[in-house]
Amino acid sequence: MANKAFCVGINDYPYDGSDLNGCVNDATEWASVLKELYGFKDITISLDKDATKKRMLDGIKTLLKKAKGGDVLVFTNSSHGSYKADTDGDEEKYDEILCPYDISDNDIVDDELRNLFENVSADVRLTVILDNCFSGTATRAPVSDIIPGLRTPDDRRVRFLSPALRGGKVLQNPWKAKPKRVEKHPESAMKDVLLSGCSDKEYSYDANIDGTYHGAMTYYALKAIREAPQALTYNRLHGRITSLIGDYPQHPQLEGSTANKRRKLFT
């Protein structure tokens, strides 16, 4: 049985005022927790300029390559998220995307990840942790939420990169926009367990929490894990994060089959 992880963190972006502070810390702390508390030995970390689209996809493919029954695999990503709008039809639709370091030329559409994960054997234990915005709400958000450099006492900023910065279309009615993908598979059929920082109509926040920069979801997930590393199931971790996250206006999501949600973490 192999325990392998691929952890990505991107603070540095090519647009003025769009850098983040906590993503690199997220990636390195996930790696530390997996190594120290769960015995992972094969861990790859990709940070900032090394986390291009090609290197991220190559890293995921390497993580999944030759995986066999009983293997425990973890992919974590802390970065900006965004959307790719399609406004040519009768109703507004969009693709959710991850923003790699070279986002000015490339993006990672959610369907690309889904296609990779669907090919994993059902008896491989895959956990995916995404602490970034999958949001279609940019045109309705207050300015203080969508300008990352605007200061708050905890230096709070959102992990959302407006498509306008890349010359992309901005949704005119984001609350009514729908994901372009067709829901082919119910949650019960998912092979992976997905823990995400927020819903698809919210932002994930990046902030100075107790003197350290992190994503809010990641910070409280790590806190909960360090307090009870062997006692937590995915359901219990999700409940603990929800109770700890406080005044950050985001709702972390847990998706997967009922059986997988009941599993102990990283087993």
UniProtKB/TrEMBL annotation:
Biological source species: Luteitalea pratensis
Domain of life: Bacteria
GO BP: proteolysis
Annotated GO CC locations: cytoplasm
GO MF term list: cysteine-type endopeptidase activity
Span of domain Peptidase C14 caspase: 4-261
This protein's name: Peptidase C14 caspase domain-containing protein
InterPro entries per record: Caspase-like_dom_sf (IPR029030), Metacaspase (IPR050452), Pept_C14_caspase (IPR011600)
A Pfam match: Peptidase_C14
PANTHER family the UniProt entry points to: METACASPASE-1, METACASPASE-4
